[in-house]
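Forwarding the complex inputs:
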Amino acid sequence: MRDVAIIGIGVTKFGELWNRSFRDLGIEAGLKAIEDAKLSGSEIDGLFIGNMSAGRFINQQHIDALIADYSGMASKHIPATRVEAGGASGAVAFRQAVMAVASGMHDIVMVGGAEKMTDIDDPSINSVLDATADAEWEAGMGLTFASLHAMIAQRMIHEGIATREEIASFSVNSHFHGALNPNAQFKKAITLDTVLRSGPVATPLGMFDCAPISDGAASLVLCPLEDAKKYTDSYVKVSAVAQASDTLALFQREDITTYGATVSAAQAAYKTAGITAADVDVAEVHDTYTVAGIMALQDLGLFKRGEAGKAVLEGRCQVGSDMPVNTSGGLKARGHPVGATGVAQIVEIAEQLRGSADKRQVENAKYGVAQSSGGMGSAVVVSVMEAI
Amino acid sequence: MRDVAIIGIGVTKFGELWNRSFRDLGIEAGLKAIEDAKLSGSEIDGLFIGNMSAGRFINQQHIDALIADYSGMASKHIPATRVEAGGASGAVAFRQAVMAVASGMHDIVMVGGAEKMTDIDDPSINSVLDATADAEWEAGMGLTFASLHAMIAQRMIHEGIATREEIASFSVNSHFHGALNPNAQFKKAITLDTVLRSGPVATPLGMFDCAPISDGAASLVLCPLEDAKKYTDSYVKVSAVAQASDTLALFQREDITTYGATVSAAQAAYKTAGITAADVDVAEVHDTYTVAGIMALQDLGLFKRGEAGKAVLEGRCQVGSDMPVNTSGGLKARGHPVGATGVAQIVEIAEQLRGSADKRQVENAKYGVAQSSGGMGSAVVVSVMEAI
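Prediction (whole assembly, two chains):
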């Protein structure tokens, strides 16, 4: 198995981009990554795309072929593959691409993640999103993602794992970083009071506990680590990518205050990378809801159970402090175009490890971790990247 | 890169299965493959699923997690990955699984393909199917798959590549084999006259030129070739899997009587397998429409351009003759549950190479090929399997 490097990264602005199409966004991110990798598009021999619901959002399935076509790769018949795993779609596409290079089946591959969520065909965006939860036993009964996460939050508060204020502070942390990221959907720092007093969504969660609906795309170029230097001096090593599953329905778990798939994938990834959680210098986690962010910090082993919320409230996850998390602004402030998110997380980690994260730069970051979750932690990918 | 073997196969009956659910079908095929491989489900360490449109057909995305869950693998947090490439979804899942084993990232993986197309949520099945064509430039203008294929047929007749009778004979060939396959949706042999006199769909194609709407699932178990003997004596080698893309829209092709992606994938696959088209003993091709079957025979190099139709009409593609094709009954007679089809084709080739195809058995088959197409040949996978 060959080692793999990330040699190019590209990301669009995230937001409600009414005047941008799905195709348009995907191509912008792809071209940026190709330019960043200092190669020509004709050198790419494979394409992996993460997308949740183009079939419903824009009535277009088969977007693997669409992206290959519109990026000019179809004429060369380059294979293009779409994967879907709800919110983890982009991260799963990344894993497939790493596998393709590691196996030797491909040499230079592009990973793309994209979603167009505003300006859509489908009448109910929630019905599309809820289709990544258990349609038969949970979503079909009226349990939205917000209410499922609210139940987790209630349980965490009940068990004394985190207070309402600690959970809310995750949003403050994300917005703090969003204000430093020119591509973020929300570039405004907020106070704890703003989160606590925001309109109720599902008790105890309010509007500012929830990631927004967004349009956007992100892209990566990968090649064998041994070839990376031929293209660029600015690359990072992919030390591990691990994926794990859990029950689709939340009610079937023994403990809803932890995602077993995150724990399992993190352990596998750390083992492959030869590190422990203590070695992680910067992390991007899947904060669709504040409470999911807190859980991720615990499940990744970055903080002990019961201590993550306190750490976030104390500002320890801000850049400049000891465990910077979601320096991109996270899903909450950078935005959450579902299929793009998992790829955008890797882009941010690569920026940090290359030292190109500008105002959000974590000093001397050696190891970065990205955690991406589909459904209620039903599919989780944990990736470890390493500065070279 | 490790060599890969298919050690287990499973397929459900295909048809309008009103009393079977998506979950139910997926599990049946999976359990059959596990039993066939003579291992226990707990030995599987990865799962790859091909599915086109569960998000629209049954309002359930994220079916990777769903299948992992319902097959009892979620509790062990086994990674599960869903891929989508329109009609090639199952074949692309197979390719990802081969890559996973070849790279060493996984040891024993299951591939599943499933689709539930009757008894569905979405009001218009054609709108779902057409979403795998180009939504913006073709499907959105009212061009259905049937009319796109009809244009290809008109052009082939116009250019003298095949006559109407030769095109129609592909359906006779599929039904001839369907009558021998207990799992086929249509188990009745038909005459050329039946096809030619069937109700018009899009001139010149009639009802019997078109594959049906079906429910069904198929499954495979893969492992490294060197380990196959530990489990079973009944396995086949995966000699090559190649994938290629083309433009999403048909109108952008220079020549619509050939699929460049099939030609490209076939050449790559033969090269990797170290064979030529002349070595192929049995083939399964993607006959959503009769004309697509004829094209595939030419694009795979099994017959010269202009000779495939004649060969089919003369019965040369029937079992017992020199180039048996679609011995399963193909998409037309076995049925076409979209996500399952690509996997079911590999199941049939494995049956032939293992010598377990019963009344459909091709004598002394050494090399078998499966060709699977998404959209209008926008994503094509060609796989070569070899008897051991």
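Residues 338-354 of chain B form the longest helix (17 residues).
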